[in-house]
Write a structure and sequence with these properties.
Blueprint (H helix, E strand, L loop, with lengths): L2 H14 L4 H13 L3 H13 L6 H13 L3 H14 L4 H13 L3 H14 L4 H14 L2 H14 L4 H21 L1
Length: 179
């Protein structure tokens, strides 16, 4: 089924029921698949309007689109709203941490990552991202511990393994300078 056919089907559904959240959301995802992030954002905004702004999923979807379009401040605002609606969403805290990382607010990124791991202690990606934020702050020993935790939870996590090796080399270089 071609993408024009799919888009037309969603649009027909929305003409019949313009308050159909799923229709607007699906149309947004379709435009995202086609690489049109700005149009996707428009449809996700419409979808969230029909949910009276009380649906964390809608805010998370909108945040993801803003993040993809590198509008980190708008992504941050949407993520914060989503987490007010659903503060137990570990993935939401993880995403907020990534956004803070992109904004170079590394301490806030660490706090969000830790919140995600309190909700979901086996969240290997969250441990890895906490480690990345510690590395950015120069907290190499803390970074090393976080990458090791990520690998303990997910032994095949290649990015965590690469970053652990990098941090370990940086620690050795620092010890050589001081030793």
């Amino acid at each position: 089924m071609g993408s024009d056919h799919v888009k037309n089907k969603y649009k027909m559904t929305l003409r019949e029921d313009p308050t159909n959240y799923e229709g607007w959301k699906n149309l947004g995802f379709k435009y995202l698949q086609l690489g049109n992030c700005f149009q996707a954002i428009r449809f996700f905004q419409i979808a969230s309007d029909f949910l009276n702004k009380k649906n964390a999923e809608a805010w998370n979807n909108l945040a993801g689109l803003y993040f993809l379009s590198k509008n980190y401040k708008k992504a941050l605002a949407c993520q914060q709203t989503a987490l007010k609606l659903d503060p137990t969403n570990a993935h939401g805290w993880f995403n907020l941490g990534i956004t803070y990382y992109k904004l170079e607010a590394f301490t806030k990124a660490i706090k969000c990552g830790l919140r995600a791991t309190r909700i979901s202690p086996t969240y290997a990606e969250a441990w890895h991202n906490i480690g990345a934020a510690h590395t950015a702050l120069g907290n190499l020993y803390e970074a090393q511990q976080c990458h090791m935790k990520a690998l303990e939870l997910e032994p095949q996590y290649e990015l965590a393994n690469r970053n652990l090796n990098l941090v370990s080399k940086l620690i050795k270089l620092g010890e050589g300078v001081h030793g």
